[in-house]
Amino acid sequence: MGKFVVTTQTDLEKIIGRRQGETKLGERMQLIGDDNWQENLKTSSAKFVVLGIPEDIGVRANFGVGGTHTMWPVALKALVNVQSTKALQGEEILLLGAFDFAAKMRQSENITVEQLRNLVHEIDEMVQPVVTSIIAAGKVPIVIGGGHNNSYPLLKGASLVNDKPVNCINLDAHSDFRAMEGRHSGNGFRYAHRGGFLEKYSVIGLHENYNSQEVIDELVDDPDLNFSFFEDIFLRGKLSFEEAVKNAISKTAGRPVGLELDLDCIERTLSSAYTPCGITTLHARQYINWCAQLVHPVYLHLTEGAAELRDGRKAASTGKLIAYLVTDFIKAYKHKRGLFS
Asked: What is the predicted pLDDT for the residue at 129?
């Protein structure tokens, strides 16, 4: 099966690099007792709840290169060793824990694509209640690791709390709006939209080479769907990156918004669909900074990144990038300025 494992102080001590004269975020982060953590969550003063989804089943169910299960521990270690300063002290963050999908990962080896997609459905059923509990407690989940299949239980969980569909902004090279052919990392937003959990969906920076004409036509025809092409922003100069983000913010205004970032759109960042041509890490940070200043970002999802892919490629720096993105989000959320007003 699988379960959610709450992080303990002992777990945290193993990865904090303590140093005299310095204080790390991990030394200030809040933890929570495993005994009835859903109830304990409600009394925590922390606004932001960090959790991990270490799986790559959804990616492989979409014929992608596995390895996204390696992201969580590396990103967590990088995050807890960020310096605690006046800009971000650490008490604002509750480090909740991560899903234990070890058994499912073993089960996923050497099985058919159809069987992988059935396992993704089971992952949906486990992720959604945890996300619902966090949002219902008035917190903002920051979800790290796994494939983009997890956008579906995140959107469903947020929608159930709000008792209505939520909106979503996604910075991604792919729409992840593929056919409902069984659950995988390429169709989470389609399932959420069709299920009534996602209303308005804006994707920034789609790559023309990697989105089918059928999906593009649907994005054009459906008034609830909105997108911009990477090529129109960075190659043809039809609009600036800031304008593309501003447009996505405008299109999704009026409801709680799920904030998504697929690391496979960032140039030369290790991910399930590594790209030699994409946005820069600075663009990714700007996107997070701007969007975190929305009236109501209901969660942050950093997905598809990897420390090591199943084909042997490795990049320890991906964890540090995620630490930047998480801290950028929290700082911007705490100091909303109405950047585009």
From this structure: 97
Question: Is the full-model pTM beyond 0.90?
Answer: yes
Q: Is the pLDDT of residue 294 over 90?
A: no
Looking at the domain that runs over 3-334, which CATH code has it been given?
A: 3.40.800.10
DSSP three-state, residue 201 = strand
Residue 177 is encoded by which pair of tokens?
């709006």
Write the CB contacts of 164 (distance below 8 Å, at least 6 apart in sequence): 255
Closest by CA to 300, choosing from 35, 41, 46, 48, is 48
Q: Give the dihedral of Cα atoms 77, 80, 82, 85; nearest 10 deg.
A: 180
Q: Phi, psi at residue 32, to the nearest 5°? A: -140, 145
SS3 call for 199: strand
What's the residue count for the chain?
341
H or E element that contains 98: strand 93-100
pLDDT, tens only, 236-265: 999 999 999 999 999 999 999 999 999 999
Q: Are 169 and 136 in contact (CB under 8 A)?
A: no
| DSSP-derived 3-state class of residue 321 | helix
